[in-house]
Specification:
Blueprint lengths: L1 H15 L4 H21 L6 H22 L10 H8 L1 H8 L8 H6 L3
Length: 113
C-alpha cells in the first residue's frame, strides 16, 4: 500500500493536466480522504471520539469513491472490501482492537507469481 501511495501522486498529477480538470480535482480529493483514513487505520491507539471521526472518514471516502468509479464497474462497486470497510471496521476495532495487526500484506506478497 505504501508503494501505491508514493506512485499515485504522480499519476494524479499527470491526470490533472488532461482536459477534464474537475474530475481530476475530485480524484485528488478522494485520494486525500483515502490517505487520511488509511493513516487513521494504522494508529497504535485510538479513543472513542477518534473512532467516531474514523467512522465518518470511512463513510465520506466510500461515498466519494463509489460516485467516481461505479460507472467503471460491472457490479456498481458492490465489493466485499468496500462493504467490510463501511459496515464492519468500527465493530471489529471495538471488539478486537486496532487494525494495525490485521494486515495481510505479507501473505498477499507470498502468493504473487
Amino acid at each position: 500500500m505504501r508503494d501505491v501511495m508514493k506512485i499515485i501522486v504522480l499519476v494524479l498529477d499527470e491526470l490533472y493536466t488532461i482536459d477534464n480538470g474537475t474530475l481530476c480535482i475530485k480524484l485528488i480529493k478522494c485520494y486525500i480522504k483515502f490517505i487520511k483514513m488509511y493513516k487513521t487505520s494504522k494508529k497504535e491507539k485510538i479513543n472513542e471520539s477518534e473512532l467516531k471521526s474514523f467512522e465518518y472518514e470511512i463513510i465520506d471516502w466510500i461515498q466519494d469513491f463509489v460516485k467516481l468509479f461505479k460507472n467503471f464497474s460491472s457490479s456498481n462497486l458492490q465489493l466485499p472490501k468496500l462493504h467490510m470497510w463501511r459496515y464492519h471496521t468500527i465493530y471489529i476495532i471495538k471488539h478486537y482492537g486496532l487494525l494495525n495487526g490485521l494486515a495481510t500484506d505479507t501473505y498477499e506478497t507470498l502468493h504473487k507469481n
